[in-house]
Amino acid sequence: MSAGNLLASGMMLESLSASGKSSERLSLPLLQSKMKIDPEGYTTELGLIYNQFISALDLFKQQAAISFSSGACADASISKELGDRTLFLAHVAPFYAKQLSQFPRQLVEFLKSSARSLPFGLRAHVTQALILLVNRQMVEISETLALFMELQTVGDRNLRKLAFTHVIQSIKRMNKKHKNETKNRALQNILFTMLQQEDEALAKRALNTLCELHRRKVWFDDRTANAICMACFHSSSRIMIAALSFVLDYEKIQEDDDSDCDDLSSDDEANPQNAHIVISKEAVYKANHSGTSASKKKKKAKLQRAIRSMKRQQRLSSEKNSSTYYSPLNHLKDAQGFAEKLLSRLQTCNERFEIKMMLMKVIARTIGLHHLILLNFYPFLQRYCQPHQREITNLLATAVQACHDLVPPDAVEPLFRQIVNQFIHDGSRPEAIAVGLNVIREICVRMPLLMTEDLLQDLVLYKKEHQKAVSAAARSLMVLFREVCPSLLVKKDRGRPVNPKARPKAYGENHVACAVPGTELLEGDYNSDSDDKTDDDRDDESQFHGSEDDDDGVPAASDEEEANGTEDEDGGSDDEDDLLIGSDDGESENSVDENDSDLSSDEGDDEGDENNGDSEKMDDANDGAEVSNSKSNKRKRSDVDEKLLASVDSSLRALKRLAEEKFKPQQDEGEDGILSNEDFRRIKQLKAKEAAKRALGQHGFKQSTSDPTKPLDPSKLEAHIRHKLNKEQRLALVKAGREDRVKYQSRTAIKQNKTGGMSNRQKEHKKKMPLAAKRHKIAKSQVEKRKKVDRLGKQFRGRKAWK
Fold first, then answer.
1. CA-to-CA distance for 704 and 696, rounded, in angstroms?
2. Residue 26: phi, psi to the nearest 5?
3. Which contacts (CB < 8 Å, 24+ apart) does range 757-761 have?
4. What pLDDT does 262 receive?
5. CB 488 within 8 A of CB 453
6. What does the radius of gyration of the chain's CA atoms come to, in whole angstroms?
7. 3-state secondary structure 418-462
8. pTM for this structure?
9. Of the four listed, 26, 540, 616, 620, which is most buried by Cβ atoms within 10 Å?
10. d(Cα 594, Cα 588) in Å, to the nearest integer?
């Protein structure tokens, strides 16, 4: 068919008439809708339009070849007709699958061969037709993925956006109900191959596709994460920067401001089940009922600070235990090799400082996440640790993230000393001192073995600085070592540590849990309860034996004296009787009796000789009475001793029986080793009490709440110092504070302007009383004045000068 006949027939297609129908003129959209309603009735028209599409496609290829050799422009009408027929056939293709079975392959070959040379309108129409066929499952996405990735490299912004969106939505739709691993692996292999190619544009589009699918959690697996991380070693710097940016931007740090803490605390107060906080009743009582109003206000504020800190700690611990935190670096198969290769590239690259900073951040995050040992990284960071260095806070945050407890302290000590010497000295600015102290605190959270006693005491002295940021940073360092190692602090800086003998773990030391965490708290609670019960039982036993003695009619004091007397007569007793009854008291009483007899003999010697005869007569008369009294006393004491020994034996048996009953259940629980739900609830309460005690002992000092496994926010290291304001700034603040203030008025004017009625005192002044009541009131006031004068007395006021 010649080109003239083809063009004439193409112009006639606008007025096609349906066979067997009325001879009305039909346009392509109207014919398309009728063919969808009755596909079998329009088979002839479909064949005619398909043949015209093939003829137009051949004609366009011939004109493109002629225009390429001669430089002449192709006919725009042919490209328009070709684009219209292509979209028409793509819309009706699902209804004529057999007749149009070769149509998708023809479109794919046409785009592969001449996609870059097509006019933008025709290229967009053909791409839309192919997307429509893929969406209607006429073509598999695995057959067209490479084509759509190449179309994104064409210099057409709208086409690039169209192809990229189609690829993402197609793969997302394919994995919506269930993940087909076979198809996913085939598509991933195509993209991984493109990512490793030297073609920068194609590799960049493949990396963007992988990152978007990983961000949307469509391909949220190890293979995709490793492929993205391995793109950091691409020869092109643009692809390396894109991969580094994705890894760093994926783990953006959520700011934890005081406002967020207040919002969370209000949420916790609204939902008390979210937080488990136990404050001692004594602290609550003191805050509400003990002391002056000012001291009570301070105690209430301290309680609120303790509650907020405990809620923050519980929230951080729950976030740490939960699996919400994620980074693509977690899926690295060879994390040590990845960090070493990235460090070697960092040492040899000639890129600008921002790119080096990104490389250092990724290396530090890898070291912190996987607890790697990369000793060459710390001397490299040491070269940049200067106060005048650009982006110094980001660099210091990177140094902090690269520290963990498995790194030898000797490897980090030069960097640690560099930060101390360069930032913390008297000639440094307050901002640098505060940043240095914050960095030292964060490093010591991860590696407390770096700190020495002399250095810590020197750094803590900055708590007396006038700059609030510096003093707050020094106090936070002091609070950290109150918990980690109080022995490094001076005694006055230790405060009330929870564990005075606490010390950091030695390098390589690891504590293996051999029991359920918190059982030691439970055992201590049981021991305290048992001690209290034994004290109560002892009180009950003493009361019981005292009542028995009272029933016998013998007082307790006389029992001890009589028992001592029997011991002296018997010449000794058993050890248990000595412990229970006590022989020391008897010895003291005997010594007192001997002293009394000595005193009486001395007095007798001091008297005159005249009384000697009388005294001898009295002694002779009293000898007989003393002998009879001693025999009766001996019989009484022997009876009492028998009763007392019997009661002691019974009390010992009762104590032994009580101890056996008390320790039997504890032994059974220890042998069983199974904790009940009540025990776990008790452990939770004891942990909350301990946390409350620790929080109340901090006295409102700033604590380090950073998680070593998460990236550190550099803004937390910065010092927010309020500089001195000039006169204009102070006046502006004063005027801003006066905006909502009411105009000043005296108290009298305020009373006069009040809208309510008169006060009771004003009403009393205006109240009309009877004459007798007035006289009584006057007389009463005079009597009160006279009593006041009498009570105060006359006071000499001095002579008046004019008299």
1. 16
2. -115, 135
3. none
4. 43
5. yes
6. 49
7. HHHHHHCCCCCCHHHHHHHHHHHHHHHHHCHHHCCHHHHHHHHHH
8. 0.62
9. 26
10. 10
Q: Which two tokens stand for residue 605?
A: 């010697």
Q: Which helix (H) or strand (E) holds 286?
A: helix 281-289
Map tokens 């000068």 to a residue. 801
- Integer angstrom CA distances of residue 167 from 150, 193, 290, 529, 732: 12, 16, 70, 68, 58
**How far, in Å, CA of 216 to CA of 224, rounded?**
12
Residue with tokens 């793109």, as numbered in its chain: 231
For tokens 């029997």, the residue is 566
Q: Which amino acid is at 578?
A: D
DSSP symbols for 740-751: TPPPP--HHHHH
- 117, two tokens: 């040379």
Dist. CA 451–CA 441, nearest whole Å: 10
Instruction: For residue 657, give both structure tokens.
Output: 């029986």
Q: Which of 706, 701, 708, 712 is nearest to 476 (CA)?
A: 701
* Cα–Cα distance, 368 to 510 (Å, whole number): 18
Residue 302, φ and ψ in degrees, nearest 5: -65, -40
Helix axes 453-460, 468-484, angle to 10 degrees: 140
Q: Which two tokens stand for residue 375?
A: 């000793």
Q: Tell me which of 88 and 537 has the higher pLDDT.
A: 88
Q: What is the amino acid identity at position 767?
A: K
Could you give the CA distance from residue 258 to residue 597 in angstroms, rounded to a whole number?
83
* 278 secondary structure, DSSP code: -
Predicted confidence (pLDDT) at residue 455 exceeds the cutoff of 70:
yes
Give the H or E element holding residue 608.
Answer: none
Question: In 10 A of CB 798, how many CB atoms?
Answer: 5
Rounded to the nearest 5°, which phi and psi values hold at 72? -80, 155
Nearest to 211 by CA among 199, 201, 202, 220: 220
278-297 tens-digit pLDDT: 666 677 767 777 778 888 88
pLDDT at site 685: 79
Rounded to a whole number of angstroms, the distance between the first and last alpha carbons of the chain is 148
- The answer to whether 460 and 489 are in contact (CB under 8 A) is yes
**In the chain, % of residues over pLDDT 70:** 67
Q: Which residue has the higher pLDDT, 692 or 419?
A: 419
The amino acid at 707: D
CB 489 within 8 Å of CB 456: yes
Q: Which residues pair with 16 in a beta bridge?
A: 26
**Which distant-in-sequence residues (6+ apart) come within 8 Å of 94 by Cβ?**
136, 138
Q: Do residues 521 and 627 lie in contact, with contact meaning Cβ atoms separated by under 8 Å?
A: no
Both tokens of residue 76? Answer: 């725009």
- pLDDT (tens digit, 9 = 90+) per residue, 13-32? 444 444 444 333 458 888 88
Tokens of 59: 């004609």
